[in-house]
Amino acid sequence: MSMAEDSRRRGLGRGLSALLGEPTVSLETDGPPTAGSPLKGLRSLPIEKLRPGRFQPRRMFDQTAIDDLIESVKEKGILQPILVRPWPEDPETFEIIAGERRWRAAQAALLHEVPAIIRDLSDREALEVALIENLQRQDLSPLEEAEGYRRLMDDFSHTQEELAKTVGKSRSHVANTMRLLALPERVKQLLDEGSLTAGHARALLTSGDPVGLAEQVVAKGLNVRQTEKLSQQGPEKTKSRKDSSVPTKDADLLALERDLSNILGLKVTIVLQGVGGEISVQYSTLEQLDGVLHRLSNGAHGRPSGLEA
Description:
Elements: H1 3-20, E1 42-46, E2 50-51, H2 63-76, E3 82-87, E4 90-98, H3 100-108, E5 113-118, H4 123-137, H5 142-156, H6 160-167, H7 171-178, H8 185-193, H9 198-204, H10 210-220, H11 224-244, H12 251-264, E6 267-273, E7 276-282, H13 286-296
Parallel strand pairs: 2-4, 3-5
Antiparallel strand pairs: 1-5, 3-4, 6-7
Helix pairs in contact: 1-4, 2-3, 4-5, 6-7, 9-11
């Protein structure tokens, strides 16, 4: 681990400890906490008394990672307590703030109880802790991280400077991560699927056609530097490069265009798209379009004005 990485992790640890008022339990413990543990609020709770957190920043759970965790829990138990707070409507039920994957794994491993630290946390503190705990593990996707930042700013009036200090990140990192939320949904989907990296996604933000460029990146396996270069070219240059890759029309296709143009009296263009394609007809007035419909329907569309039968 580099000195920079170590410094970032210590920064995150201090932020989480400050919120909890005490050091967190290390993952590298020899076994599950005991009743004599000095941690305040540590109890063994029935597994059915825990509910998923309303402020969980994670939207996707990697089933392979969950399966690995299940095997670990079966062999060694829960090595790190789950952080919870009392459920407002039922003090005997608890909301999970950090540790939902451990809780899911414990259920699959058929455990009846799990070690938990109980804290009275506000909604803001609950979201902060959930976000920081996941950032410490580097478990969140870029969009999950960005959404967590957005919620802290929108729901709890954090500034970017305050937020960066709380989570142990630079203000520029927070700002650049949140910019990913402005991407089109198709690009976000590719990012969530892992087809694009966060570096690719940030490069696409400057593109005039982020969706089209994203499809190019995935299809051609472009790296981040190549993506940045294409984004900086602008939509016109990117389009011209894309158009240059379109196959040249053969003589038969050109003949079909000419024949259709003669029949309809308007310019017709045929564009190949894989095994199929599309036909476009250029017209200047609605009367011309009406005439096309009249011809294609063998007169069923009605007699167009100014056109002899």
